[in-house]
Amino acid sequence: MRTLLAALLLLAARLAAATQPNVIVLLADDAGWGDYSFNGNRLVATPNIDAIAKAGAHFDRFFVQPVCSPTRSEFLTGRYHRRLGVYGVSTGQERINPDEKTFADSFKAAGYVTGIFGKWHNGSQWPYHPLARGFDTFWGYTSGHWGEYFDAPLEHNGVMKKSQGYIVDVLTDKALQFIERNKGKPFLCYVPFTTPHSPWSAPKEDWARFKDKPIAQTATQAKQEKADETRCALAMVENQDRNVGRILAKLKELNLEDDTIVVYFSDNGPNGHRWTGGMKGTKGTTDEGGVRSPLFIRWPGRIAAGTQVKPIAGAIDLAPTLHALAGVKRVGDKPLDGRDLTPLFKRGYDADWAPRQIFQTWGSSISVRTDTHRLDNAGNLFDMIADPGQTTPIQARQPALAQELVTAVADWRKEMGIAAPAGGKGKAKGGNGPGNAVDPRPISVGYREFPITMLPARDGEPRGEMRRSSGAPNSSYFVNWTKPTDAAVWNIEVVNAGTYVVTLDYACAASDVGASLELSFEGTLLKGKLTEAFDSPLKHEQDTLPRPHGESVMRDFKTMTLGEVKLEPGKGELRLRATAIPGKGVMELRRVTLTLK
Asked: Minimal CA–CA distance to 336: which of 104, 74, 78, 102?
């Protein structure tokens, strides 16, 4: 009887939500258009990802931005990233302004249960945190790069927890639990995978299939391809495909296939020179290969299997399209840059579909794409139908179109506040980012609805001779802390007065125990002492291949409580320094955490 009653209740819930399809968004990190067997790569097998394309729609020319956080912010909002306050990938430059609304805000307002499982990369502290942007639950990491792929420490709703296993498998487990738990309700499940972003770290069984595989399809610039990195990236893609298969199998098991929209795409071009079907450019460039992504969308019975969409589309189109497909009213009234793509699912190429231009931007580099042409960052015009590899500029043959697009880029620079590159317009090399200067917007501390504020090294500034452990800030920690003039500094704004518990995540050799520490903010001081060693080894064994230059080799960190401090509202520098250093150094510091009691 209880089993029958439970089944009837589940059926009733599904009938009540029949007009509200579930939505699952799967996002690869640093996979290029050419990293899938569906797109012609013969070195890799991606049957589960391919199945989404075969059972629904696949886009011929879908464009994202050259790097991670700009694409993610555009997907979430339907607006170009420079409008959102996003202009970099770390040190606070990746944050979406608090007055912007995401499609998750809309779905939550419409009664959906919302969850994210993976890499967020659009802000770490409240009100930039995913739980402030429409998501009910979060498992993963908020930064743009995570240096540990096995047994990684991950965040769950503001608290760091140790995981067990390969990071993509672990986060897929969390997504599957979310789907199972909410099978009787409309849900939005966002799974931004970690891979194939470096470090080059794949499960042993996946690497074993690739480590000796000949590279039969080479990069457009074959001499720059690093064969082992290609092999490892594709090994990680196959692991990801297996996890996509687990999610699709769960939908089938729960009889939710017909009630669920599944979306798959990537956030930029490949993170290295490997096969892209002859396109020019990789991640970080505004050329075709750096910004073309797969886009597969499946909704059985609503999107015909095998639909090919030929007009150009972009990450800015996904939010308005998901609103339209699900029949969800948009929250927020700021004008969108994206279009609702649903007419293209229903009728294929629509004669009424207006021509458009889509812009790609990274730093001062800008490229613009039409359905048939691309004006690159150097001002060269290419016919992308006749010359998809951008080999022969044609501005001399089509001066009117070239001038039209040059003017469009100039207007775009002005509208977005992007300075012209040094040396004259169009002369800069593509892929030059904005650097790692700490964003001037302060980090908010002390929201009662989210009392835990983590201040990682990537969001702070090392002073004196202290430095980050790597040139890439996202997964770094502070090292070379040897003098009283060294300090770790964060620009913060305390929003609520109160007592804050201060903890440090650190590593320290036994010979360096005993340093006297001082945390200061606007005249308030908290003093403490490092009393316990924690000399953890570097985790070289996690890596399949040596790490790229600029990426930290990680280690474990221990949490110590420095003490409690009363803080008043205000803006200023939170500064941590050592007033006495009995050993050669103080510690290596991963983060400071402030928790409002």
From this structure: 78
C-beta atoms surrounding 19 within 10 Å: 9
Instruction: Indicate yes or no: pTM above 0.90.
Output: yes
Q: What is the C-alpha to C-alpha distance for residues 20 and 28, in angstroms, rounded to an integer?
A: 26
CA neighbours within 13 Å on the CB side: how many for 428?
20
In a domain, 352, yes or no: no
Residue 567 domain boundaries:
443-596
232 touches 544 (CB < 8 A): yes
Q: Is residue 358 part of a domain?
A: no
Same-domain status, 461 and 399? no
* Inter-residue contact 406 to 367 (CB < 8 Å): no
Please tell me what DSSP assigns to residue 134: T
Q: What total number of domains does the chain contain?
A: 3
Residues 142 and 213 in one domain: yes
Using one digit for the tens of pLDDT, what is the confidence trace for 297-332?
A: 999 999 999 999 999 999 999 999 999 999 999 999
Regions in the chain scoring below 50 on pLDDT: 8-9, 11-17, 425-431
35 vs 190: CA distance, rounded Å:
21
**Beta partners for residue 416, in sequence order:** none
Strand, coil or helix: what is 363? coil
What the block records as the tokens of 591 is 């983060």
Residue 351 lies in a domain: no
Give the residue from 343, 353, 413, 341 showing the smallest Cα distance to 377: 413
Q: How far apart are CA 62 and CA 265, in angstroms?
A: 9
Are 139 and 231 found together in one domain? yes
